[in-house]
Amino acid sequence: MWLQQALKGLPGLLSSSWARAAAGGCWVLLVFYWYLGPEQRWTLFGGRRHAGGAAGQCLLAEVRRWRSLVERGEAVYRTPQEPLDTPLVTGNGHLLVDLDANRLWVASSSRPGSAPVHQTDFSPRAALSATASGAEARASLLWFRKGAVLSVRCVPPPQGVRDCVTVREEFLAHRSRPNVLLQRVHVHKPGDRPVALDVSPGQPVPRRGWRRQRVFSSSVETLEDGDVVLWQGRVPLDGSRGMGVVVVSKKLKPRVQVAAKSDYTDHVVSVVWTSEPVDSSRVEDVLGGLRDGARKELGELLRANVDDLVEDHQQAWMDLFISEDGTAYSFGENKLGQLGQGTQTDAVLSPALISYNGQPLVKVACGAEFSMVVDCKGNLYSFGCPEYGQLGHNSDGKFIARAQRIEFDCELLPRRVAIFIEKSKDGQVTPVPNVVVRDVACGANHTLVLDSQKRVFSWGFGGYGRLGHTEQKDEMVPRLVKLFDFPGRGAAQIYTGYQCSFALSEMGGLFFWGVTNTSRESTMYPKAVQDLCGWKIRSVACGKSSIIIAADESTISWGPSPTFGELGYGDNKPKSSTTAQEVKTLDGVYVEQVVMGYSHSLVIARQDTQQEQDKLKKLPEYNPRTL
After folding, report:
1. Same structural domain for residues 81 and 203?
2. Containing domain of residue 409, as a range?
């Protein structure tokens, strides 16, 4: 009834001029509100937003992918609506790229931190722009956990087209290759129409002022069946000195056509060589050597896989993080929680942080299905499968599941190893206090630790005497190896093999226990390796059943059959040996460090002198990519 009365009075109300004006204004506002679209309406009435339209929606979706990285403290991002004071830079100590200004900075030495960096007049970033596009929506991410800068741009579609074009880019200064810059590009075109992108390569910036000159000159050359651009120039330093700079980059096509509903990927790898500071009159003289070196290095990189190059950088960057801020990553099989990420999954394919928030970590070690980490205070943590008591928590974790099946209660998160013990001959157990762990090594199912008092503890699977306690009993908690608990007889280093253990005493003697050949008698407690008495041992490594050692001026190895060349004795020579033998193929090569996998070996050789370099050049070179 009241509605009918209100409607009867409506014509009279609209007869007034002010009411008609108000109604017309409301109608215009409604049309305008509808025309703006949902994102722009939210902004009009006080909400936050990214750019509007299809490009804005595209950017929102891209930024959401970064949120988890930011929440974990691994990165920070910038959008026009969410500014960031942190500069977007990537560097490795020799090269630095300021992506905001698109400017290259270089140091005169490729050794990180050994020389100051200087700004050049070179812009290293290649730019991709869509022809006849409107205002783009863009955002950038500084991913300091990976040492890279990511950029995403959403290009608005033409009139009547729904989906926008997404251009994703990644920039990095390679951590383990100090002369290398890498830019990767990925273009996603979801719509039904192709898109053309114009490519502007890196180039010099002309100097301002009355002498508007370019201090870099360029030439296009052919390298590895492709075109490269070589830029050369100088960087003025203090006084009358200068520095020569050569940049060689892969050349992209000037225009890229991306088909409808497809993706386009490419990359630009650049090599930057710099000279030491020299007198300005001598800069031209040093450029020739820089050109040759840069061409050679870029040729090697063009033959390599770019994904391997990125993986090398990320691994080197992660090594930096675990050594400097104590953060550990894990990846691989995770069926028994051995990655320490709080889950049990088949596999984790990309490095991810372990679920740990204690003191910074300084040591990591892996067994077959378990892992150990040590923090800066000397505390030991373990996670993974507890079989044989290998986690050190006084339990093997066994329980009976359905159908009488034995399963294990795995530790999915790092758990502190709290008890260290000493056991007498009659089985009496005494806690050992004040254990500060300095090193840890894991076999397949056993662990050794070395503490600050040069004591050695072992636990886990006791088969074949690998724990060194004169018996083959499994140990559920770390137990003291008594041989090294005497003044002057402590251990300096520890090593583990698949089913054996080593310790290098503080006096330089090498001790062994366990077995390398299960068909022979086991060594139930630490015994000196007589064949190596008097040798100054630097590095030891163990494989499945083989051993390799760097000592004095020699490399020594031995292991029972079957072997697969990991002993390094050479072609047409015996492949195995039950006693220690010098590796004659490395005569005259000073080996700094040895490592051994299941059945292969790697060594790091010194090359400080010309004689050492000449010796290394005589060794055969293995290049798997040419096979």
Report:
1. yes
2. 326-417
Give the pair of three-digit tokens for residue 284: 């031209």
> Are 600 and 566 within 8 A, CB to CB?
yes
Residue pair 417/408 in contact (Cβ under 8 Å)? The answer is: no
Cα–Cα distance, 411 to 128 (Å, whole number): 49
Contacts of 576 (CB under 8 A, 6+ apart): 559, 560, 561, 562, 563, 567
Task: Report which of 371, 406, 375 is spatially closest to residue 392, judged by C-alpha positions.
Answer: 371
Choosing from 417, 432, 464, the residue where a domain stops is 417
Question: Residue 610 phi/psi, 5° resolution?
Answer: -65, -35
Residue 206, preceding peptide bond in cis (omega within 30° of 0)? no
The closest alpha carbon to 505, from 525, 485, 484, 491, belongs to: 491
Element (H, E) at 214: none
Region of 468 please: left (phi>0), alpha (psi -120 to 50) or beta: left
Rounded mean pLDDT, 87-102:
86
Q: Is residue 331 part of a domain?
A: yes
Helices and strands, number each (H, E), in the chain: 8, 43
Kindly state whether residue 376 falls inside one of the protein's structural domains: yes
* SS3 at position 558: strand
Res. 37 pLDDT band, cuts 50 70 90: very low
Phi, psi of 457 (to 5 degrees): -120, 145
- Give the count of domains, the chain: 2
Residue 625: inside a domain, yes or no? no
pLDDT in tens, 332-371: 999 999 999 999 998 888 888 899 988 888 899 999 999 9
Closest among 605, 600, 591 to 544, alpha carbons compared: 600
CATH of the domain at 305: 2.70.98
Q: Are residues 239 and 305 in the same domain?
A: yes
CA 356, 361, 366, 372 torsion-angle sign: negative
- % helix / strand / coil in the chain, to the nearest 5? 20, 40, 40
